[in-house]
Design brief:
This protein is an alpha/beta fold. Helices cover 25% and strands 28% of the residues.
Length: 341
C-alpha cells in the first residue's frame, strides 16, 4: 500500500527536485511514490532492510553510511520523540541548504508535537492530514544540531541511543533472567534479540562460556552492543533471530524476546523466537528465557522442548528453562521480530 499522504505531498509545485538524490530516513518497505533510481533509504531494522534491498532500493543501515549530496529528504517518524528529532536534524544537515525536507507520521507517533517543535524553529508548510496522520515540509539548513543523537547511559559502563529497546534503563525482565542463570553455563551460547548487550555481558560473567553470539535485528542496538561488550568471546550478528542460521549448533540460548508488532501485543513473535531457538540448539541444548506473565508460551515451549520448567519471576514476568529440543523442521513463514517499545 502506498503512503497516501506522501503521494499527495509530492504533486504539483511540491514535486521532488530533479535531478538530485533523495534521502529517506525511517521508512517501511513501501516507497513506491519515490524515484528508486535516485533514492537512498536509511533502514536499520534487518527484515525491512532486506525487503527494501530485494525490491531494488539502495538501502543503508545507518545515517553515517548515507554519504554524498542530497537534494531532498523524507523523514518517517519513529515513536521515540528524541529519535525523531535526531532523524529530522540529520535530514536538515545532509540535504543541500534550502532543499525540501518532508516529515510524515501518524498521530500516535507524535506528528503533532513534531509540527509544533518545528514551527518554533523554522517556517513549515501547511500540513496535509490524511489516514490518521500528517505530512509537512520545511527547508533544510542550520539550527538543528542540538537535536542530533547523543549517548545515553542506562547503566554504569553501558551506552545506548534513543529509539532502541529499553534505552534509558535495564529492562526488568532481563535483570530477572540474569539473576536466574546458573553460575556455570555451556560453552557456546547465543543471545537472541540481544539489544544493546546488557544481558550478554551478564552471560559472559558465567563460568564455562567460550563463545557468546549476539543476534539482533536493530542495527543501532547492535552498534551499542559492540561498544558495550568488548570481551573477545563475543560475536555479533545483525540478523533476524527467527531466520538466523548459525554455522554450528549452540549449546545454550538465552533470550528476552520481543512481543509487539507496532503497538499491539503479538505472542506469535515470541513463539517464533522459541521455534528458532530450538532449531539452533544441539540435541542436549538448553534455553533460558523471560516473558511477560500474560503471554501464553507454555504450550509453545512444550511443542519444541522435551523438558520445560518455570523457574521464577515476579508479578509481571515469568522465567523458563527448557532442554532437549524436539527435532523438527521450523515453519518457513516465521514472522519477523518487531521493535519493542
Amino acid at each position: 500500500m502506498t503512503n497516501p499522504r506522501l503521494a499527495l505531498a509530492l504533486t504539483g509545485a511540491d514535486a521532488l527536485p530533479a535531478p538530485g538524490r533523495v534521502l529517506v530516513i525511517g521508512a517501511g518497505p513501501d516507497l513506491s511514490d519515490l524515484p528508486k533510481e535516485r533514492t537512498v533509504v536509511v533502514q536499520g531494522f534487518r527484515p525491512d532492510n532486506d525487503a527494501l534491498a530485494a525490491q531494488g532500493w539502495t538501502v543503508v543501515p545507518e545515517i553515517a553510511a548515507a554519504t554524498g549530496d542530497f537534494a531532498a529528504a523524507v523523514v518517517l517518524l519513529p515513536r521515540s520523540r528524541v529519535a525523531a528529532r535526531s532523524a529530522v536534524a540529520e535530514a536538515a544537515r545532509l540535504v543541500a541548504a534550502g532543499g525540501p525536507v518532508w516529515v510524515d507520521g501518524q498521530k500516535t507517533d507524535g506528528i503533532d508535537p513534531m509540527l509544533k517543535d518545528l514551527r518554533a524553529r523554522t517556517a513549515v508548510s501547511a500540513p496535509i492530514a490524511k489516514a490518521h496522520g500528517k505530512i509537512f515540509r520545511f527547508r533544510a539548513g542550520a539550527g538543528f544540531d542540538d537535536w542530533r543523537a547523543v549517548d545515553l547511559s542506562p547503566a554504569p559502563g553501558f551506552v545506548t541511543r534513543a529509539g532502541v529497546f529499553s534505552a534509558e534503563k535495564v529492562d526488568l525482565g532481563s535483570t530477572l533472567l540474569a539473576e536466574a542463570l546458573p553460575e556455570r553455563m555451556p560453552a557456546r551460547v547465543a543471545d537472541l534479540g540481544a539489544g544493546w548487550g546488557w544481558l550478554a555481558a551478564q552471560v559472559l560473567t558465567r563460568q564455562g562460556v567460550a563463545e557468546l553470539h549476539l543476534v539482533e535485528a536493530d542495527h543501532a542496538a547492535l552498534a551499542c552492543a559492540r561498544r558495550n561488550v568488548t570481551d573477545p568471546r563475543a560475536r555479533f550478528h545483525w540478523a533476524d533471530a527467527t531466520r538466523f542460521r548459525p554455522e554450528a549448533r549452540f549449546d545454550a540460548v538465552v533470550m528476552n524476546p520481543p512481543f509487539h508488532a507496532g503497538r499491539a501485543a503479538d505472542p506469535a513473535l515470541g513463539a517464533a523466537f522459541i521455534g528458532a531457538a530450538a532449531g539452533m540448539l544441539a540435541p542436549a541444548g538448553r534455553l533460558w528465557m523471560v516473558a511477560n506473565r500474560h503471554l501464553p508460551y507454555e504450550a509453545v515451549l512444550a511443542r519444541h522442548f522435551r523438558e520445560v520448567a518455570e523457574i521464577g519471576g515476579d508479578g509481571a514476568f515469568k522465567l523458563f528453562a527448557a532442554a532437549r529440543p524436539v527435532a523438527r523442521a521450523q515453519a518457513a513463514a516465521a514472522p519477523p521480530p518487531r521493535r519493542r517499545r
